[in-house]
């Protein structure tokens, strides 16, 4: 038994040392998600030459243990593959609503709006919406009943 006593003490010491290395602070998973984009309804600009406007609501998402805030928003509006409008805006805070406005609007046709948002941790999110711009209506009313009447000199 005397010969085993040093071995038992050594094993217990190693066990205590290994327990001491884990000081109760387990590894924690850091959750850092990209920002969230919510594209609102297009409030104007669905008729040609009308100012285009849409509200975009942004939220930085979850960053447990990794403090970040919104950093930037970039947008591009294209038609048939060609860029017709673009822009960017510096952001701050965890939540923000940005209104994208294009004065003068667009010609009639199909358009695509792409939005890219990034936060200060380098996470990015994208969203897009396709919309139709209709032709402007004439300034006068041509509806109703049309009557063709002969002109006196035409007979």
Secondary-structure map with pairings?
Blueprint: H1 4-21, E1 31-32, E2 36-44, E3 52-59, E4 63-64, E5 70-79, E6 82-90, E7 95-102, E8 109-119, E9 124-133
Antiparallel strand pairs: 1-4, 2-3, 3-7, 5-6, 5-8, 8-9
Task: Explain what this protein looks like in three dimensions.
The chain has 155 residues and is mainly beta. The protein has a domain at 36-133: Immunoglobulin-like (Sandwich). The protein contains one helix and nine strands; from the N terminus they run αβββββββββ. The longest helix is centred in the first third of the chain and has 18 residues, at 4-21. It comes from Algoriphagus marincola HL-49. Keywords: Lipoprotein, Signal.
What is the name of the CATH topology of the domain at 36-133? Immunoglobulin-like
Span between termini: 138 Å
Mind describing the biggest β-sheet?
4 strands, antiparallel
Number of helices: 1
Tell me how many strands there are: 9
Q: How big is the Rg?
A: 33 Å
Strand proportion: 35-45%
Outline: rod-shaped
Strand order of the largest sheet: 6-5-8-9
What would you call the structural class? mainly beta
Mean pLDDT across all residues, rounded? Answer: 86
Poorly predicted runs? none
- Helicity range of the residues? 10-25%
Order of helices and strands: HEEEEEEEEE
Instruction: Report the top-level CATH class of the domain at 36-133.
Output: Mainly Beta
* CATH A-level architecture of the domain at 36-133: Sandwich
Keywords: Lipoprotein, Signal
Signal peptide: 1-22
Protein name: Putative lipoprotein
Organism: Algoriphagus marincola HL-49
